[in-house]
Design brief:
The protein has a single domain (2-247), classed as NAD(P)-binding Rossmann-like Domain (Rossmann fold, 3-Layer(aba) Sandwich). Helix content is 43%, strand content 17%. It is built from 8 helices and 8 strands. Belongs to the short-chain dehydrogenases/reductases (SDR) family.
């Protein structure tokens, strides 16, 4: 199923985004990697093209907080690949000293990426249908007192995901919405500094207590979601304590991850 997929992914040059991209490339997909980090992006493009083939991936410099840059990148990806059938809104930041940026990137960037995906994929306007995966967080399902802005943006994203997935009109257009909610995962994002979280010492202690996901486990959860024949409305959580949990729409109650 993945073999034919053409993918547009944001925040793809490091951490989870890079790992998701490699997992997709390994399974034969074509991937348009986008990220705000240009230099690193072109290095990663070179590395992955060498490994998977020049026609299999391309990098576009794109800041998801700029609606016009995001739209231009999406158009370029469609021109290069012919079509897109999987959009992964992964770009994110976690810095409690940057409220506006946090909302612009983590919430508005993902919403805009989703809407561009819908416009392109909707079958009633000549599209082929497809899947939109939003990378939220367990902080979008349970409160995190040392990360309130981050948590607010991710709760917003989960709400957007569930609302779109329950929209009968979007269903008819052949567009599915899946959502991945990892808990703390071993990437640069959790290098906690003074500006990143409130009560940094307490945050470090809690992190030690609950443990940290390996990137590979989160990738496994991501693959379960996109390989599902119908992931619409589903949420996968990945936590060190409970592993990968697949929540079908409306069937499970949320548990605390802290
Ligand atoms: N690491 C964790 O503990 C964790 C837990 C839950 C959810 N997440 C989510 O997973 C996603 C990936 O995070 P990660 O852990 O790999 O972190 P990361 O910091 O390693 O990677 C984030 C990527 O997003 C890119 N990015 C940041 N701002 C951008 C912008 N304006 N436009 C485009 N790209 C931008 C960065 O350049 C980077 O490549 C994020 O949405 C994050 O919120 C991470």
């Amino acid at each position: 199923m993945l073999l034919q997929r053409s993918v547009f992914i944001t925040g793809a040059v490091q951490g989870l985004g890079k790992a998701f991209s490699e997992a997709l490339l390994e399974r034969g997909a074509r991937v348009c990697l986008t990220d705000v980090q240009a230099k690193k992006g072109f290095q990663v493009e070179k590395e992955l093209q060498k490994k998977y083939g020049k026609d299999k991936c391309t990098f576009l410099h794109c800041d998801v907080s700029s609606p016009s840059r995001l739209e231009d990148s999406f158009k370029t990806a469609v021109r290069l690949f012919g079509h897109i059938d999987l959009v992964v809104n992964n770009a994110g930041i976690a810095d409690e000293s940057q409220l506006e940026n946090m909302v612009n990137v983590n919430l508005l960037g993902a919403i805009r990426g989703s809407m561009l995906g819908v416009e392109h994929m909707r079958t009633d306007k000549g599209g082929r249908g497809g899947v939109i995966i939003n990378i939220a967080s367990t902080a979008g399902l349970t409160p995190v007192y040392f990360f309130p802005f981050y948590s607010a943006a991710k709760f917003g994203l989960v709400g957007f995901h569930l609302s779109c997935a329950s929209n009968p009109h979007l269903k008819k257009m052949g567009v599915q919405f899946g959502c991945l909610c990892p808990a703390f995962t071993d990437t640069d994002m959790i290098k906690i500094g003074d500006n990143k979280v409130l009560y940094a010492n307490e945050a470090q202690q809690i992190l030690k207590q609950i443990g940290i996901n390996k990137v590979e486990t989160v990738v496994e959860g991501f693959l379960q979601l996109i390989e599902s024949p119908n992931c619409n409305g589903d949420i996968i959580t990945v936590s060190n304590r409970e592993g990968i949990q697949y929540k079908k729409q409306g069937k499970n109650k949320w548990k605390s991850h802290l």
